[in-house]
Structures are given as C-alpha cells and as structure tokens.
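Long-time lurker, first post. I've been practising inverse folding by hand and with some scripts of my own, and I keep getting stuck on stretches where the structure tokens seem ambiguous. Below is the full token string for one chain I'm working on. Before anyone asks, I'm not after the true native sequence, just a reasonable design that respects the backbone. If someone could post their per-position residues I'd love to compare against what I wrote down in my notebook.
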C-alpha cells in the first residue's frame, strides 16, 4: 500500500474518533499525527528519520523530521486530546482479534536520562503506547 493511501486511511479513521469535525490548529496537529503514524506503519520503525522518509509530504526529509520533532516537543499536545482517542481505538480493535502483550522498556536517551516506554507487541514489532 502506498504512503498516501495509508495516511488517508489513518486520517479518516482519526476524524471519526471525534464528535465534531476537527478544525483549525487541532486539525493541523491531527494531520501531523496521522502522518507520523503512517510513517511508523510504513517504515516499521519509530526513528524520526525513518518515519520522515515514509510520510506522504513533498517537503525535504529534514523538514519532515523537524515537523515531527516540533510536534512531539509541543507543550500544547495533550495526551487526552491527541493520543488517548487513537490509542483507545487501536487497542480495542486489536484486543478483538488477538491477545494483547505489553512490554516495559527503559532506554537511555540524551544526557544520561532514561525513558520508560510501554509498548504493545504486534507480530515482531513493538508499537509504543506510552
């Protein structure tokens, strides 16, 4: 499946998670989230360069990496507004077809900090949940 089709499918599914049509800045942020999810699905990776290569955007890869990075660092991105509706729906659909297996992983990141991540095992992939 091509990158644009994956993006459109994810974007349309996200639109249906909200009672009203997302508008303005919220809609733009959802578009970026949909592009990032599509990139993760297509690249089978959570690395920003891999995600950026697979997002359906005509801009240069460096610009797409910066866009994703800015989205993740944006303090106005709230878990309840952006992640929770999507994750809740994803887990509900996956739970209907298979047993869910979660793993907890601590990874060292910049300057000796540690990130604790909970991921869902799906096939041979770990999908980051939180």
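-- Answer (accepted) --
I ran through it position by position. Result:
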């Amino acid at each position: 499946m091509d990158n644009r089709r994956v993006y459109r499918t994810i974007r349309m599914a996200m639109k249906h998670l909200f009672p009203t049509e997302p508008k303005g800045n919220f809609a733009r942020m959802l578009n970026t989230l949909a592009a990032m999810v599509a990139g993760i699905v297509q690249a089978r990776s959570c690395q920003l360069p891999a995600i950026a290569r697979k997002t359906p955007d005509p801009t240069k890869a460096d610009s797409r990496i910066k866009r994703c990075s800015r989205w993740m660092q944006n303090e106005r991105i709230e878990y309840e507004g952006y992640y929770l509706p999507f994750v809740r729906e994803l887990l509900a659909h996956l739970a209907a077809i298979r047993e869910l297996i979660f793993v907890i992983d601590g990874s060292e990141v910049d300057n000796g900090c540690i990130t604790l991540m909970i991921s869902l095992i799906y096939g041979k992939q770990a999908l980051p949940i939180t």
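A couple of notes from the structure itself: The mean pLDDT is 87. Residues 52 and 64 are 5 Å apart (CA to CA). Happy to go over any region you disagree with.
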